[in-house]
């Protein structure tokens, strides 16, 4: 498997291989890339950022408070598309808990007047 380390702007090209149960990561410029490559191979996760619509118009930018499995991102975005924020929120406020059963809470990353 080939991927790019996203842990810093260097963007090292990683090659991750599993042979006889042993995982190897090559191409990383530092130990963070090794850790990232192993996680990406076995359980890839991402922090998700998106926009939620207000019930009376406008949008609020949000993100998950933790990385979620990549195969849950579609569920989360479908949840976000249907969700409406019906009150004012401040940056950093939790808008929803355990969104789309991902285990992640949704945090506002901008103020919203509601
Ligand atoms: S392996 Fe290290 S140097 Fe390379 S992109 Fe990842 S964090 Fe940056």
What do the pLDDT scores average to?
Answer: 96
Percentage of residues in strands:
25-35%
Secondary-structure element pattern, one letter each: EEEHEEEEHEEE
In total, how many beta strands?
Answer: 10
Overall form: elongated
List cofactors, ions and other ligands.
Answer: iron/sulfur cluster
- Tally of distinct domains: 2
**Content-based structural category:** alpha+beta
The CATH class of the largest domain is Alpha Beta
Task: Outline the secondary-structure elements.
Layout: E1 2-4, E2 13-19, E3 22-26, H1 31-42, E4 45-46, E5 49-54, E6 59-64, E7 68-69, H2 73-82, E8 84-85, E9 94-96, E10 106-108
Parallel strand pairs: 5-8
Antiparallel strand pairs: 1-2, 2-3, 4-7, 5-6, 6-10, 9-10
The chain binds iron/sulfur cluster.
What would you say about this model in short?
This protein has helices at 31-42, 73-82, and strands at residues 2-4, 13-19, 22-26, 45-46, 49-54, 59-64, 68-69, 84-85, 94-96, 106-108. The chain is α+β, with helices and mostly antiparallel strands and 114 residues long. The strands form 3 sheets. It has a 5-stranded mixed sheet with strand order 8-5-6-10-9. Strands 1-2-3 form a 3-stranded antiparallel sheet, with helices on one face. A two-stranded antiparallel sheet has the order 4-7.
